[in-house]
Protein: YqhG family protein
Organism: Siminovitchia terrae
Amino acid sequence: MLQQEIHQYLEQFFIATGCTIEESGAGALTVQLTIEMDKELMNRPFYWTYLEKTGGIPNPMKVTFITDQEKAPPDIKGEFIHFGAPRLHQIFETARKLSAYIRLYEKPVMNAGQNVPLHPWLNVNMKISYRSDRKKDVFRSFGLNLINGSLIESFHEKITNIDLSPKIPDYCFTISPIIMPASGLKRIESFLTSEVQSQEHPWAEAAMKRWEEDTKLLNHFYEYAEEKPETFFVEKNALEDQYSPSIYVDILNGGIIYLNTLPA
């Protein structure tokens, strides 16, 4: 996951959860958290318990995330976010937990008195994990039009510059979906499954070869044993666990995005 993609993901996440993006520049993002997101992310249970007992005024935190240390201003202070950062994976988990409730609406530019239709899109952001003794993760974002069934890839990137709101704007109305979200998700899963099955997987073939070579070495080590000890079978099973190729698809987050603009 590239740093620019992380920056875009954080922007979209905090907009979707009702937080205020106070500044979003090259390599850094400053966010005023809502009470809910402060409780979810900032690990301040004693503060919130005390506040609720005393009836104090809530003061959710303002946080700065640095997404590119080379591009960020040299004097800025904040938390560096990269793919391996615990904070990013905490946000992934939060997004996963809240994803069923994320619903965003485009804020279109319109003339006075004009009523603007917003079309429903199912957005699903997924992680494809290729696993053997080596690991590789690929992130994909899909958008499925719930009216006509058209499927767009890199959907998250395509809507990054669209002004979205968790509340439907005045003088806008939503078009009822013809395709239900559950059915739309199955279409996306079917597309991705067909794509993965049609691809060549040299990484899996290479893993199988390494597995075979290490199995030969293991057999050679125990070839003079009249009866194979338990350790032989333990090591053999361990090789299978280590080298056996597998592909996992994990839904990170998603939601219904109502758009007036057709993603390019």
About this structure: Helices lie at 3-16, 35-41, 45-54, 86-98, 155-158, 181-198, 202-221, 230-243. Residues 202-221 form the longest helix (20 residues). The chain has a mean pLDDT of 89.
